[in-house]
Amino acid sequence: MKALQYAGPRDIRYETMPDPVIEDPRDIVVKVERCGICGSDLHIFHGHTMRDDAFFCIGHEAIGEVVEVGSAVTRRRVGEKVLIPAAVGCGACHFCLAGKVMSCLNNVEYCYGLSRTLQGCQAEAVRVPAGDFNALPMPGGMTPDQAITLTDALPTAWFGCRNADIAPGNTVAVVGLGPIGLMAVESALLMGASTVYAIDLVPERRQMAAELGAVVLDPSEAIETVREATHGRMVESVVEAVGADTTITLAIRLAAKRGSVSVIGVNMDRRMEFPMGRFFVNGLTFRSGMCSVPEWLPELVPLVQNGRLKPERYISRVMPLAEGPKAYELFDAREHGVLKVVLTP
Ligand SMILES: [Zn+2]
Ligand SMILES: [Zn+2]
User: Fold this and answer.
1) Cα(128) to centroid of ligand 2, in Å?
2) Distance 40 CA to ligand 1 centre (A)
3) Which helix (H) or strand (E) holds 187?
């Protein structure tokens, strides 16, 4: 089959690789119909990878059709349309049964194309371990573009907002307006935020947040403007959707006393100094972590089906898988209003 392979920093190739096969009786194989490029794939694109194989297939967002099932699979059927959540669990432990896949007690492989051996989803087909659990029947009444956002991006944005303790009437700030940050702006407003300050360097992205109803700010003016607008109180809930030390620091400085800071951006450096003094003096809450996608789908599926959330609006390009290398360049450059890019094998 054909797939996108990482061959080194800024070197994504459209190559032939072996077809996925059933390796365990609980596996299924899914023919991919749409796959997404996520902001965290850009970290790999820039050369940050925990894998030591020279080439590997990347991507962790896909929908498709089941083409093969292992002998122990009981719920998935060949021909069934499925949504594949980015987060992978064993499907049998205490946490998986509660939907908290990222806390799986047996998890050695938590995500396609990121963890050590699971193949990525930017391919014509992918093996899904514990297919009864890790592939979900396609929800009715939604388009493929809506469904692909439910595999990772929208649940991550929603989880980020929940972690920020957003309650009706709250003031909120969202730092970073990539697709997930914009989805967080939309989610925060749906959760009842009175004001959402949306902060990013890129004017086109700020424009999109303004259209959602946010007050938009350049990072350089964010602290002063928010301080003035809130009469020194700052904001009760902050969602950080970049992961850089500077943006996490900005998020913490935006938080009001007793406020909550939620980081969903992936911090590659992992050595940032934690400002314990500020947290202690101001009584702040800090939360971070990876989203257990299945945990949030019961809330999000009906919100998308009924048009209360419109995550498909952040998909700016749908391109053939063969043009994947170009798609990475476009997404990385953040030019010409490029937001989320979706690929079709
Ligand atoms: Zn992702
Ligand atoms: Zn588990």
Assistant:
1) 14
2) 5
3) helix 179-190
